[in-house]
Structure formats: structure tokens, C-alpha cells
Design a protein that fits this description.
A: alpha/beta, Nucleotidyltransferase, domain 5, 2 domains, 12 strands, about 40% helix, disordered C terminus, B: alpha/beta, eight-stranded mixed β-sheet, six-stranded mixed β-sheet
Chain lengths: ~375, ~400
């Protein structure tokens, strides 16, 4: 069995997979964070959930790896030293991850443990992509650069096409677009913070920076007020007034004028990221859509592909049905291939973990 | 009844962030008999500040200190006065200014008077570099040349056709409405001029053309997507800070960085805005100069020059890629303004590896280009690549003359 763990500031989520039968749904359970931290019977509890089988590997998802983790890392004593050095970036999150991983390190001796970072994939991007056009020394001294996000998904997506120019889109709480050439990242829409790139349910995405100063200097908004507006009151919520998940909001796309405009703006932002990606790639061979919201956003993806069909994308008619988790949504004769990846993030981590411990990839 | 033809010599003043271009144009003949440019005004560069001043085609280069735009204008007016003593025909009776960002106050050219000045004063922060400079010049002319009429022509009008999905920010709708926050766009006078000239040069009807116009200047830069002669998107936004990397502006930026800088360094909003508007862009990365031409001169020797150049070119490519997807088929790609016209390496870098979008540059034509309107695309290219020197001053004179004759109160 392989245990995949994802932790946020409140809870710890567990997925238990049988690595010899990855098609079976995993055992899933959630535990309160404090309960995990204080538990003296954690190993016993987890084995109870899993039916007592042997755990062959434990993999953790970690949101940020800074400059220290350019790839998935085997968890060793040195790992803790390096992770601790990232505390300055996320003073709450990193110590929490350290504490949780240390518990598992202690309780599951002899079981290989891996750390998967959402930022590692982008560490090799070129300088002109990683840095912003602000004073260079200031960026270097303050570690301001485009760290990226959803690297675990983007690496898996672009890895499916070992050769060629690929655009990978992840629809999750955040939407990100990554371009990759021969499996290596070339650009990523999300940057130093989650505010950059494509809008989300409550955040604005790319916006004229001058607006921030206009609101502060002329209209007298405080920095805290603007920060709150841009992160928590903008995006789909700000444009429509509806506090709904995207999967629910998309159902009103044809019925409500504001919802329609919001999705048109969302599509325009996606088009911008895709246009940027293909201009730097110098073409396009494959597009792959994935993430927890991908199935709900199929109408948006269909409409988006129709808009760029002139590039040589021959999209299949809706509904898109596939037996596999990853399946084509373009016709056989389409010059550019597009596909949908309905795999969950833990499943992606599972495959990568199996690859690490078995040194071979399962066929996808 | 036949209408009376009004004659006017219009002195156009076109402020860039580091330049001041001027022309005296006799209207309605569109004859330009004095023209020039104050270059490298108020900035740190590796070259000297100068005024190139031409009268009836004869050019003088005057190397001089140009600490700010007011000093530059005084020196230009002194040159014109000196010429007028030798030739009485060298005279002007109207000032026409290019004004970058009039907010929501004005959507067409306007004659300057006290109420107009008051409204313009309220717009200074909307374009933190240009508006205060131009406003200062307008105020100077208003006080020092009381008898000379003044007009302001706005750079934003061309972009009024941008559709809502591209002009609306994903902000709370109530806030956007209350403060008028939407993509306004700039360099409209130039984008309109070069698009019309490109279609005229190729003998194509503008109503059937899809054009991407790259206005790449030593100050501000922007890209515009134009369909059937109308702007459908442009890289600058509510303010000129959005979009491309510029000489001292950062262009597109993760907004989280603004909050990070302010909290980390305890900078005020004004200080932070100053960094992003005046100390970033090419200057921020290269540090020795804010002029991309200096960057190009150092590209082999200085790694920072290489990063700055690649970053600049990369951002232009980004927008061309985006606009090519919007337009679906790009008929014409135009390069204009000082960097777009004067830096072949920049055009080459931007057009590199873009054949899949129909964009393919003839390298020899590109290298040997000297001046004027010229086609630089390779034989197999679907998109015509043109260099079109912009003439914002002529457009400003045309717009001013139109306003003058439609609402003429002098006769």
C-alpha cells in the first residue's frame, strides 16, 4: 500500500492506495490536524483504516519548495534541515509540515517517505521567465521570483508527451496554465503569489498594478482593504455577486448576463496564458486539461478550444466520454491533440511514487 | 454656402516619458515646416541629452542639458523664436498637446481653459509619468502664452471599441463602476495612425484587415490588436503601468509583490508606485541605462543586458501570441516608434520562431532597413510585417484642426 498525505492548516487528508491495483478507489479519511499532532497511536489508527496491510511508501504534498527542492525529495534527516530554512516564506505552514512529517518519520521507520513539491517543476525555467521587471538586486535579495504552482500536475501532464510542445491547464481552486517543451517547463501563469495569472472564485488574477496605487493614493483605500478585495471579494464572486463554486456557477452561464461575462473574462485570461505559452514554444502539439474542477468545466474547455480551432484543433462534439482517466477530446485527424485528464492529485502522486520505488511508470 | 477654409499653424507637443517631440504643421495643407525632438530628457542613460531641430528639412543637433520637460520646452521655444527672427513665416498660433490619460472627463479633443485645467489636474495620478509632465507644459503655455489657443488631444479614444470581456477587470463590479476601473489603453493616436498607413501602403481595405500594432518606444510601449480598423485589445490598461516591460515601468506584475514590498520595506504607496513606474523595467534589470538601445550595445558583454533584452522581447511575443489567438488570422504586424523602427535585433527576436502564426521575418531586409514604411516579411509569410514610423504629431494636428473647424469661435 501507498499512503498519500495532504495537509492544510486545519486538517490532514489521507489516501491509501493499493499499488498493485491502482484502478481501485483509495481508502480516504481526514483527521483533525491537532488530533494527528497529539496522537500517540497514529500508526495503529492509520493501519486500522487501511485494514492492516503493509505500507510500502508514504508521500507528502508540500505547497512550496523554494530553491532547496528542485525535484521530489526522499525524506531524510537532511530534508528537515532544508525544509526548516523555508520557514521565513511561510511562517505558519512550513513549521506545521515539519511537525507532521516528523511524526510520520518517527512512527513509520523503515518506510520510504517522499516529499512532492508544487513548485519544484518550475525551478529550471529561464531567467527572463522567472524574474519580474523590477529592480534586480531587490528581487535577488528578497527571493522574489516566479515560483509557480500546480507543478505536480503540470509535470505529470507534460510528462505524458515526452516530445513536443505542450500546454497544460489545471482547474482547481486556482487555475494555472503551463507551457512545456519536451516535458520541460517554459512558462507558468501563477507567480510569486497566487494573485497572478487567471482569476479564481474570489481573486482577480492579472490586473493593472496601477489600479492598486489609484485606489490607495487617490481613493484612500488601505493596503489591507485592497489586499482583501483582490483576494477575497474579486473574481467570479465580485463580477457576479454569487458566492458559488465554479462547478455550480457554470450552470448559470447561459442564463445570467453577469455570469456569462465572468466566464468570458475567465476565458480571455486563459487565452492570454495560452497565447503567451504558444508564442514562446513556437507552436503547439498537445493541450491537456486536468484538475479537480476539470469535469465541471467541460463546457468552458469546449468553448475555449473552439475559439482557437483555427490553429488546427478539431474538437470532438460534446458530451466527452472516455473510459480511461486520460482520454482524447479531439478527433483522430486533429493536427493538435487535446485531452482531458480526470485523475485526482493523490492519484498523480501515487503514480509518481510507484515510479520512484519501482523505477518504472505504470502505463497511462 | 461654401464654408470658409480656416488656416492654422499648429505647434504639436508630444511628451514621452523621456522625450518631447514637436512639429509646427500648417493646416489644412498638413505641411510640416519645423520639427524636432528633445531626447533623453530627465533620465540617466549612457548617451547625451540633445535636441534635434529641423527647419524646412535642415537639421541641427544641439547637445544640451535637459533636466526635465519644462527645460526642454523652454529651449525648443527659444529655438523657434530665434528661427522666427530670420524667417517671419516660422510662427505658430495654436498649441496642441498629446495628453495621455484624461480619466472619464474627456473622450475627444478639448480647448484648454480654466475649468478644463481644473479637471485635468484631477487626472495627474492616472498616468504618474506622463500626465504631470504634460499638465506642467499646458500650465506653462497657459500662463506664458495667454493669446495662443491650446488644445489637448487624448490617447485613449481609439480604444473605446474594446469589448467588455477584454476591458473588464475581475474586480467587484460595484467598485469598478464607482471608480471607473476598466482597461482604457494608450498610444491610441499612434496605433490608429500606423494601422491606417500600413493598409494604405499595402493597398488593402482596412475594413478587411486584422492588425497587430507594436508601438515600442524608449519611454512607453504597448501592443494593440485591431480588427477592421477598431481596437479590440491593448496591453496597457487603466494606467500605462500594465502590459509590456518598458524603460522604467515594470509592466504586468504579480500584485502580491506590491503588498510584499510595502510590508517588507515599510514603503509608502507613493514610494512603491515610484519604484514600479520610475525604477523598474529595463532600468531595474540592466541598471546602467533605461534605454534598450544601450542594452543592445552591451548584450554580448553584460549578462544583465541579455536578461533585460530577453525579458523585453519575450513580453512583446506574449502579447502577439495572445492577440493572434483573438484575431484568429493576423494580416499585418506593424512595428513602430523608436525601438520598433530603430532596433533590428528586437524585431528579429520578437518574430523568431513565430512561423506557426504566419509570422516570418526576412532577416536580410530587416538588417538593411533604413527608413520610411517598409515590408520586412519573408516571401512565404502569411502575415505582412511592416515597419511604419509613427507620426502622432500629424494625427494630433488633424484632430486639433477638426475640433477647431467644427467648433471655431475665432471667426
Amino acid at each position: 500500500m501507498i499512503l498519500v498525505i495532504d495537509t492544510n492548516l486545519k486538517e490532514v487528508k489521507f489516501w491509501v492506495f493499493k499499488e498493485n491495483n491502482t484502478e481501485d478507489p483509495p481508502v480516504f479519511f481526514i483527521k483533525d490536524l491537532e488530533e494527528v499532532r497529539l496522537s500517540k497511536t497514529l500508526r495503529k489508527d492509520i493501519l486500522g483504516f487501511t485494514g492492516g496491510g503493509k505500507i510500502n511508501a508514504i508521500s507528502f504534498r508540500i505547497l512550496f519548495g523554494g530553491d532547496f527542492f528542485a525535484k521530489t525529495s526522499l525524506i531524510t534527516p537532511e530534508f528537515f534541515v532544508k525544509l526548516d530554512k523555508l520557514t521565513g516564506f511561510f511562517p505558519f505552514y512550513i513549521p506545521l509540515m515539519l511537525a507532521i512529517i516528523k511524526i510520520f518519520y518517527r512512527e513509520f521507520k523503515g518506510v520510504p517517505k517522499f516529499a512532492f513539491f508544487e513548485t519544484s517543476f518550475f525551478s529550471g525555467m529561464r531567467e527572463e521567465e522567472k524574474y519580474y521587471a523590477i529592480p534586480y538586486e531587490f528581487q535577488k535579495n528578497n527571493k522574489i521570483k516566479k515560483w509557480g504552482f500546480h507543478g505536480i500536475f503540470h509535470e505529470a501532464n507534460s510528462g505524458m508527451f515526452h516530445r513536443g510542445k505542450c500546454i497544460s491547464v489545471v482547474f482547481d481552486k486556482q487555475t494555472t496554465v503551463c507551457s512545456a517543451n519536451d516535458g520541460r517547463p517554459v512558462s507558468i501563469s501563477l507567480g510569486f503569489t497566487p494573485l497572478e495569472g487567471v482569476m479564481s472564485r474570489t481573486s482577480c488574477g492579472d490586473l493593472d498594478p496601477g489600479i492598486v496605487f489609484y485606489l490607495m493614493n487617490i481613493q484612500g483605500f488601505s493596503i489591507y482593504k485592497i489586499d482583501d478585495i483582490l483576494k477575497n471579494e474579486s473574481g467570479f464572486l465580485g463580477l457576479t455577486g454569487y458566492d458559488l463554486e465554479l462547478k455550480d456557477l457554470v450552470k448559470f452561464r447561459g442564463k445570467d448576463r453577469n455570469v456569462r461575462l465572468a466566464f468570458d473574462i475567465y476565458q480571455a485570461q486563459l487565452l492570454k496564458c495560452i497565447g503567451e505559452g504558444i508564442s514562446i514554444l513556437g507552436g503547439l502539439d498537445n493541450v491537456i486539461f486536468s484538475g479537480s474542477e476539470v469535469s465541471a468545466l467541460v463546457p468552458v474547455i469546449h468553448s475555449l478550444l473552439k475559439k482557437i480551432s483555427f490553429l488546427g484543433i478539431n474538437t470532438r462534439s460534446l458530451p466527452w466520454i472516455g473510459k480511461e482517466e486520460v482520454f482524447p477530446i479531439t478527433s483522430e485527424e486533429s493536427g493538435i491533440k487535446a485531452c482531458l485528464n480526470r485523475m485526482s492529485l493523490p492519484k498523480v502522486i501515487l503514480y509518481a511514487t510507484v515510479n520512484l520505488i519501482c523505477k518504472k511508470l505504470p502505463r497511462r | 454656402m461654401k464654408s470658409k477654409i480656416v488656416k492654422a499653424n499648429i505647434l504639436t507637443l508630444n511628451c514621452g516619458s523621456s522625450s518631447l517631440k514637436y512639429k509646427i504643421i500648417r493646416m489644412p495643407d498638413e505641411e510640416c515646416f519645423v520639427e524636432g525632438e528633445a531626447e533623453r530628457v530627465g533620465i540617466k542613460t549612457q548617451g547625451e541629452s540633445l535636441i534635434s531641430h529641423s527647419v524646412s528639412g535642415k537639421t541641427r543637433i544641439i547637445k544640451t542639458e535637459l533636466g526635465n520637460h519644462s527645460i526642454a520646452l523652454r529651449k525648443i521655444l527659444a529655438l523657434i523664436k530665434s528661427d522666427a527672427q530670420k524667417n517671419k513665416e516660422i510662427t505658430f498660433d495654436i498649441f496642441a498637446h498629446r495628453y495621455v490619460h484624461p480619466g472619464n472627463f474627456f473622450t475627444k479633443p478639448v480647448k484648454i481653459n480654466k475649468p478644463v485645467l481644473k479637471k485635468l489636474k484631477e487626472t495627474l495620478s492616472l498616468a504618474a509619468i506622463h500626465n504631470p509632465i504634460t499638465y506642467g507644459l499646458i500650465e506653462f503655455c497657459y500662463k506664458e502664452y495667454e493669446t495662443v489657443e491650446q488644445f489637448a488631444v487624448f490617447d485613449t479614444a481609439f480604444h473605446r471599441s474594446i469589448p467588455p470581456e477584454f476591458s473588464t477587470y475581475a474586480l467587484p463590479a460595484k467598485i469598478s463602476k464607482k471608480y471607473g476601473l476598466k482597461k482604457i489603453g494608450f498610444h491610441g493616436i499612434s496605433h490608429q495612425y500606423v494601422t491606417e498607413e500600413a493598409c494604405r501602403f499595402l493597398k488593402r481595405n482596412i475594413k478587411f484587415q486584422k492588425v497587430i500594432s507594436c508601438h515600442l518606444g524608449t519611454g512607453g510601449s504597448s501592443v494593440c490588436a485591431i480588427n477592421r480598423g477598431k481596437s479590440v485589445n491593448t496591453s496597457m490598461g487603466f494606467t500605462p503601468l500594465e502590459g509590456l516591460v518598458m524603460n522604467t515601468r515594470c509592466g504586468d506584475l504579480d500584485l502580491g509583490i506590491i503588498f510584499y514590498i510595502m510590508s517588507k520595506e515599510s514603503f509608502s504607496p507613493v514610494e512603491t508606485e515610484n519604484i514600479l513606474n520610475k525604477k523598474s523595467g529595463i532600468l531595474g534589470i540592466f541598471s546602467s541605462s533605461s534605454d534598450l538601445r544601450d542594452v543592445v550595445d552591451n548584450i554580448g558583454a553584460d549578462p544583465r543586458a541579455k536578461i533585460a533584452f530577453d525579458m523585453y522581447a519575450r513580453r512583446v511575443k506574449d502579447y502577439i501570441g495572445f492577440y493572434a489567438l483573438i484575431l484568429k488570422k493576423t494580416d499585418i504586424l506593424v512595428f513602430t516608434d523608436s525601438l520598433g523602427v530603430g532596433v533590428p535585433l528586437l524585431r528579429e527576436s520578437i518574430c523568431d520562431n513565430m512561423a506557426f502564426l504566419g509570422i516570418s521575418l526576412d532577416r536580410e531586409k530587416n538588417q538593411t532597413y533604413r527608413n520610411g514604411i517598409c515590408e520586412l516579411s519573408s516571401a512565404q509569410a502569411q502575415t505582412k510585417i511592416l515597419v511604419v514610423p509613427t507620426n502622432e504629431e500629424l494625427m494630433i494636428a488633424r484632430e486639433t484642426y477638426k475640433e477647431l473647424t467644427e467648433n471655431d469661435t475665432r471667426h
